[in-house]
Design a protein that fits this description.
By secondary structure, this protein is mainly α. It has one domain. It contains ten helices and no strands. The radius of gyration is 20 Å and the shape is globular. It is found in: Membrane. Its main location: membrane. It comes from Methylocella silvestris (strain DSM 15510 / CIP 108128 / LMG 27833 / NCIMB 13906 / BL2). InterPro entries: Fatty_acid_hydroxylase, Sterol_Desaturase_Related.
């Protein structure tokens, strides 16, 4: 990957982007193949898309190549990311990975809930384009208005990246870019790989399978697309910190936006309008 002098043949930001594109479109095509052939149909929980893969693809590519790539390259040019030490020590690497998850959660929650879902702004900022999909075809993860894409995809990735001081560690940047692509594709794919895990088990085994189900489900973002008032940053691969703190996690909010009653608390009858 490096030349005789240890230098990359292309800028690291461009390399990270290209690897992300290979992962995104490779995994996206695999999900599309599953959709068309019925492979993994036991895990397909949602199938509500009206647009085909090739109808979604052009906007996705425009967002990626004309918004994400220039943003990544600009950070490297300005010396704000993708530059510095060639390798991180193991502790810094782990801490930076954790911080990326937390930072992504916070930045996405702020932009997603308070800007993109602000009354009257969902259309102006193009977020309604993304909500025209049902989160049941993987490639729709990046099908959105251009301003929406910058606020919801680019900033939650690049703002934390500037703050974790990851230097020019190639493995770190390629891993972050790849995991981000896979997470977005999965939670928009309509598949949920947690559905076959054992349920209702007690003891340590029950807690283990419960935790595994929580980590592997795509339910949170599916509920966001269905209800719009839940899980603004809580999704596959996200720690869901802000949604938990602010009570907007999908399993804490009723369909009409009311908090779910606690155990032993009577449910109130819905008002009729």
């Amino acid at each position: 990957m490096t030349d005789a002098n240890g230098a990359l043949p292309i800028p690291l930001s461009v390399l990270a982007f290209l690897v992300q594109m290979v992962v995104y479109h490779g995994v996206g095509l695999w999900f599309e193949w599953c959709d068309r052939t019925g492979h993994m149909s036991a895990y397909k929980m949602r199938s509500v898309e009206r647009m085909s893969y090739f109808e979604l693809l052009p906007r996705v590519l425009i967002n990626q190549f004309f918004i994400l790539l220039p943003s990544m390259a600009a950070l490297e040019f300005l010396g704000l990311a993708f530059v510095g030490a060639a390798h991180l020590n193991p502790l810094h690497f782990i801490a930076a990975m954790v911080a990326m998850g937390v930072g992504h959660d916070v930045v996405q929650y702020i932009s997603h809930r308070f800007l993109l879902h602000r009354p009257g702004w969902i259309r102006k900022l193009g977020h309604s384009v993304h909500h025209s999909t049902g989160a049941s075809r993987a490639i729709s993860a990046c099908y959105m208005g251009h301003v929406d894409f910058f606020l919801e995809i680019v900033l939650p990735y690049l703002i934390p990246l500037m703050l974790v001081f990851a230097g020019a560690d190639v493995f770190f940047h390629l891993l972050v870019a790849s995991l981000g692509a896979i997470g977005g594709l999965y939670e928009h794919s309509g598949y949920d790989f947690s559905v076959k895990l054992p349920r209702g088990l007690g003891g340590l085994k029950g807690r283990f399978y419960g935790a595994l189900a929580g980590l592997s489900t795509s339910k949170a973002h599916a509920e966001h697309h269905r209800r719009s008032n839940v899980s603004f940053s809580d999704g596959f691969g996200s720690p869901g910190i802000c949604d938990t703190v602010f009570g907007t996690r999908w399993d804490l909010v009723g369909d009409r936006g009311r908090p779910r009653p606690q155990a032993g608390e009577p449910q109130k009858e819905a008002a009729h309008h």
